[in-house]
Amino acid sequence: MPVVRSSEAQVHELHGARFVSYATTLTGSKELCAWRGEIPAGTKAPVHTVSREEILHVLDGELLVVLDGQTARVTAGDTLIVNPGATLAVENPGERTAVTWVTTSVGLEAELADGTRIAPPWAH
Fold first, then answer.
1. Which long-range contacts (CB under 8 A, 24 or more apart) does 85-88 make?
2. What whole-number distance in Å separates Cα of residue 8 and Cα of residue 77?
3. Domain-embedded: residue 3
4. Domain assignment of residue 107, given as a range
5. Domain count, the chain
6. What is the pLDDT of residues 43-79, one digit of tens each?
7. Torsion sign over Cα 32, 7, 77, 85
8. How far apart are the first and last CA of the chain?
9. What average pLDDT does this structure show over 6-18?
10. pTM attached to this predicted model
11. How far apart are alpha carbons 87 and 111 in whole angstroms?
12. pLDDT for 2
């Protein structure tokens, strides 16, 4: 039975944020990936376009997001739906770390504004 204990989760860091990976193909998932995102206060992630749908649920704190040119604040309990091909920017304007739970399908990639492509290991 595939059970990923919190002590076994893989931690990755990118652009000032932490991605604590639980469900990937390496842990037994066939179609979905899921991770906890930890975005410290004052962190501003680069603008990026995603290749697959991403569901981001805020567990704690708040985020300022720009999704395809529309700006919104999302706070604990809110869920953001990011469709494939959408362009996203995420910023933590708060005074404490924002915590999210994110789910996507295996193989998600992101393209930065400068054309750099990222295949994050927590989404494979």
1. 85/49, 85/50, 85/51, 86/49, 86/50, 87/47, 87/48, 87/49, 88/47, 88/48, 88/49, 88/50
2. 26
3. no
4. 9-123
5. 1
6. 999 999 999 999 999 999 999 999 999 999 999 999 9
7. negative
8. 20
9. 95
10. 0.93
11. 9
12. 84
